[in-house]
Each structure stands twice: as structure tokens, then as C-alpha cells.
């Protein structure tokens, strides 16, 4: 483009030089001489623009890298927060239940030992107690405390046993031929995650519950290990 401009000027000078005075020729020569510095200035500006663009491109790449690093760090922090929330939820374990959800009913006696299913759930933080099976499953390793209160009457004994997996931990036993009673027991147990705790009514025994919720099963996590 610059060469074409130069040659155009040169042709113009040649075409009119025969008709120009000496003063006019000096003016034309001055304009041609002024054209060369202008072209040099354009080259300098273009070089400066190229350098500036290269610097800006490098800065943009650095900013993009920093932004990606910040995004990765934020994702990692979000994951850690979610994990801490889950751990905190796992440490919040407590349940309280009653044998019946309505009415008054005798459970037993049966010919064999029978797992008691406590249907009325007052509290089940952590959902570790299953109201369909009567079994509590430890969500984390730790020390848990359990309590049971059993209601009985008349001439059939009340005998309820608390089991950790297949191991019997304690017994609630009461028998009075002509009276009513409420007996209780409790224990603190070290459980591994996945251990089961439940209550079993012994064979030939009976337990009663009513709208007063006399027969209950409760437990909660004391601390993790």
C-alpha cells in the first residue's frame, strides 16, 4: 500500500513537472520528503500496537489461569464443606419410640423369642432406627446409650432383652401375680458402624402398651470414637 502511494506521487510529479515553476517543484519536493517520515511513524505505531497486544494477550492468559485456579479451589472448598456437613449430620443421632402408635394392646405371649417393633416414633434424628423392623443401626463408630421401659401386669411375666447384633446385653424382668408394673434398664455401648441394636420379647412373656406410651425404646449417640 505504501509503495503504491509512493509511485502514485512519483507519477504525479513526472506528469506535471514540465508545467510547474521552480517554486512549485520545491513545494512538491517538500511534500514528498514529508511523506517518508509519516510512513516511518506508521511503522512505529504498528510495532507498538503489536507489542501492546502481545502483552495484553499474555496478561489475559495469566488472568484466565488465576481464574481457573480460584474456581478449582472454590470447588474443593465446597466439597470439603459438604463433607463436614455430612460428618456433622452423622454425629447427630437420637431416637425415641413407643411400642404402639394408637390404642391399647398386649404383645405376646409367643412360643418363641420375638423382636419388638416400636411403631410410634417420637424422634429419629439421623434415621438410624427402622420403624419397620424395630432395629437400630449405628451410622458411625462411637458410644451410644440405650434405655427401655416395659409395662406388664397380672399373672404373665414381662421379659424383654436388649441385643447388640447376636449378643444379649441386658434383661428387663418383672413378675407379680396380681399387680401392674413398669420396669426399665439401660446401657452404654461401643458400636461399630453397621452394628445392630434391638429389643426382643422372650418366649412365654408379655408386654403391654397404651395411649399413655408406657413401653418405650430410646437411644442416642454420646460421642464418636
Automatic annotation (TrEMBL):
Localization: Secreted
Coiled-coil residue spans: 67-94
Signal sequence segment: 1-23
GO cellular component labels: extracellular region
Keywords: Coiled coil, Secreted, Signal
InterPro entries for this protein: C1q_dom (IPR001073), Cerebellin_Synaptic_Org (IPR050822), Tumour_necrosis_fac-like_dom (IPR008983)
Boundaries of every C1q domain copy: 88-225
Organism superkingdom: Eukaryota
Pfam entry (one): C1q
Keyword Coiled coil: yes
Major place of residence: secreted
Name used for this protein in its record: C1q domain-containing protein
Amino acid at each position: 500500500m505504501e509503495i503504491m502511494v509512493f509511485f502514485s506521487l512519483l507519477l504525479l510529479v513526472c506528469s506535471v513537472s514540465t508545467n510547474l515553476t521552480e517554486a512549485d517543484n520545491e513545494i512538491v519536493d517538500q511534500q514528498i520528503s514529508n511523506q517518508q517520515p509519516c510512513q516511518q511513524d506508521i511503522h512505529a505505531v504498528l510495532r507498538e500496537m503489536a507489542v501492546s497486544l502481545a502483552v495484553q494477550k499474555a496478561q489475559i492468559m495469566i488472568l484466565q489461569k488465576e481464574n481457573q485456579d480460584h474456581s478449582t479451589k472454590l470447588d474443593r472448598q465446597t466439597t470439603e464443606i459438604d463433607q463436614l456437613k455430612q460428618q456433622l449430620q452423622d454425629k447427630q443421632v437420637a431416637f425415641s419410640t413407643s411400642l404402639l402408635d394408637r390404642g391399647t394392646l398386649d404383645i405376646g405371649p409367643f412360643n418363641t423369642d420375638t423382636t419388638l417393633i416400636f411403631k410410634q416414633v417420637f424422634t429419629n434424628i439421623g434415621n438410624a432406627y427402622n420403624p419397620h423392623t424395630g432395629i437400630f443401626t449405628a451410622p458411625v463408630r462411637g458410644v451410644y446409650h440405650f434405655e427401655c421401659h416395659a409395662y406388664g401386669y397380672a399373672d404373665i411375666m414381662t421379659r424383654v432383652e436388649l441385643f447388640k447384633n447376636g449378643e444379649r446385653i441386658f434383661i428387663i424382668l418383672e413378675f407379680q401375680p396380681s399387680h401392674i408394673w413398669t420396669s426399665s434398664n439401660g446401657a452404654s455401648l461401643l458400636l461399630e458402624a453397621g452394628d445392630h441394636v434391638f429389643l426382643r420379647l422372650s418366649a412365654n412373656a408379655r408386654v403391654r402398651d397404651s395411649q399413655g406410651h408406657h413401653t418405650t425404646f430410646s437411644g442416642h449417640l454420646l460421642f464418636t470414637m
